[in-house]
């Protein structure tokens, strides 16, 4: 029986049964292989913890970045709303000016027609 047989045990009972069959291998595992495995697990845990902490920092930075972008998007929405309101106001004012221009043009045309009509009627006629 070798160390792989012991390590491939499916349950504590299975490990115990196999360990009692080969005491020398069990001693080897307890004094050498298991401490090495624990040390390896601890090293892996420390490395994984470091990576997790780094990832957590990255996620926090991304959250701050997204939050800042949300603020920028909200500011852009407010600016767009203001610009739309101003555009609508300018359109309304331009329509009022257009209407006023039409009214003045019509009034000017009528006065011009009256003046032309008045000057024609006041001219002496040559027969």
TrEMBL record:
Coiled-coil ranges (or none): 66-93
Protein name, as recorded: Uncharacterized protein
Key words of the record: Coiled coil
Organism: Golovinomyces cichoracearum
């Amino acid at each position: 029986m070798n160390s792989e047989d012991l390590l491939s045990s499916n349950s504590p009972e299975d490990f115990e049964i196999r360990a009692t069959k080969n005491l020398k291998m069990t001693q080897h595992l307890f004094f050498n292989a298991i401490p090495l495995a624990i040390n390896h697990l601890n090293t892996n845990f420390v490395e994984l913890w470091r990576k997790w902490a780094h990832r957590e920092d990255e996620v926090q930075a991304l959250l701050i970045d997204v939050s800042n972008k949300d603020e920028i998007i909200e500011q852009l929405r407010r600016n767009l709303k203001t610009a739309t309101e101003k555009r609508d106001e300018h359109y309304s004012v331009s329509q009022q000016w257009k209407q006023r221009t039409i009214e003045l043009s019509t009034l000017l045309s009528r006065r011009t027609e009256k003046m032309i009509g008045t000057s024609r009627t006041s001219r002496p006629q040559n027969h």
